[in-house]
Amino acid sequence: MGVKYRCPNPKCREKLMIPDKMQGKEVRCARCKELFVAPIRFNLAETLRRPTSELIK
Ligand SMILES: [Zn+2]
């Protein structure tokens, strides 16, 4: 499993497959060698956020 992501370098825009374990961590584009932080998948972030919002009520 992983998430498809596009390289943030405007001159590259390579499609990258980020493995789940690399999400939220620094990864290097295989094509342009740009270092960037891989995004955390939205539904995963949602799962992490939910318990906190329930504590506030
Ligand atoms: Zn790139």
**Would you tell me the overall average pLDDT?**
81
| Poorly predicted runs of 5 or more residues | none
Estimated helix fraction: 25-40%
Strand order of the largest sheet: 1-2
The SS-based structural class is alpha+beta
Bound molecules: zinc ion
Strand content: 25-35%
Number of helices: 1
What is the H-and-E element order?
A: EEEEH
Report on the structure:
- There is one protein chain.
- The protein is of the alpha+beta class.
- Helix content is 26%, strand content 28%.
- The model has no long low-confidence stretch (mean pLDDT 81).
- Bound molecules: zinc ion.
- Zinc ion binds next to loops.
Question: Topology, pairings included?
Answer:
Layout (H helix, E strand, L loop, with lengths): L1 E5 L8 E5 L6 E3 L6 E3 L4 H15 L1
Antiparallel strand pairs: 1-2, 3-4
Bound molecules: zinc ion (ZN).
The site of zinc ion has 8 residues, from loops.
